[in-house]
Specification:
alpha/beta, TIM Barrel, eight-stranded parallel barrel, 16% strand
């Protein structure tokens, strides 16, 4: 592995082998998502607890202070919206020149395995890997499911993650599920957990994050379950304790409540 690739991955994955990525890219298909209407203000108090920021180039340029940020994972797929016919009909939206110009530590692209646009999105990933490997830029594949949440089982996610790795993704972002270790064991590159729609309680988040870490995930890529929480900074700190300090779900919950109580 070339020095540049190793350096960028080292920025993202910390010395303990774990990572906490904070995504704020939701507006690329959802528009002004609740509590992400002003992304710069939302993310500013959370940055100290994240290892990297997952963001589109438009929000990066308009809202993120270049003098005070974390490594950037650039969202480079899109072209669909919540009001369109099919969220899976994505293309690559960002050139390799812009990726380099924005000094991205990595890029992220969604794949929709099993959808009508499976081939197109898998070729988006393959073509992006072809371009980015030339410059030592890691590609993170996101195993998206669109509106079909019932697809979140170990058999489907294991299939999607393995295909992403086979096509050259350096990291795969996927959902937690029952028997999550089967997903991780079948994927030869590191796996990070997505959050998906906001959970009903903080404890639900702590439980699945802790379980996933025990079953082989190297970290998380959680957005809505952090910044849509009524206490986002406390939530970020509690999640960081699980990811980087080995805290249990009980310990994370107790820390969350202590921080909220002040």
């Amino acid at each position: 592995m070339d020095w540049g690739m190793r350096n960028r991955l080292a920025q993202l994955i910390q010395p303990d082998g774990h990572c906490f990525f904070l995504p704020i890219d939701h507006g690329y298909f959802q528009g002004p998502t609740r509590r992400l209407e002003k992304p710069g203000e939302t993310v500013k108090p959370l940055l100290p607890y994240a290892d990297a920021l997952f963001v589109t180039r438009g929000v990066l340029r308009a809202c993120i202070d270049p003098a005070n940020t974390k490594p950037i994972i650039l969202r480079v797929s899109g072209g669909t919206s919540m009001v369109g016919k099919d969220l899976a009909h994505e293309g690559v939206t960002t050139s390799i020149e812009d990726i380099i110009r924005l000094n991205a530590a990595a890029v992220g692209v969604s794949i929709f395995v099993g959808s009508d646009y499976e081939h197109e999105t898998l070729m988006n990933l393959a073509n992006l890997v072809n371009a980015c490997e030339n410059y030592g830029i890691p590609v993170m594949a996101v195993t998206a499911v669109g509106r079909e949440l019932e697809k979140r089982d170990a058999r489907y996610l294991g299939l999607a993650c393995r295909i992403a790795a086979e096509l050259g993704a350096r990291v795969v972002k996927t959902y937690w599920c029952e028997d999550f270790e089967k997903v991780v064991e079948g994927c030869p590159v590191p796996v990070v957990m997505a959050g998906g729609p906001r959970c009903d309680t903080e404890r639900e988040v702590f439980d699945f994050v802790y379980d996933g870490m025990q079953r082989g995930a190297i970290g998380i890529n959680l957005g809505r379950n952090v910044w849509q929480n009524d206490h986002p900074v406390a939530m970020a700190q509690a999640l960081r304790a699980i990811v980087h300090e080995g805290a249990t779900a009980d310990e994370a919950e107790a820390l969350f409540h202590r921080l909220v109580a002040g």
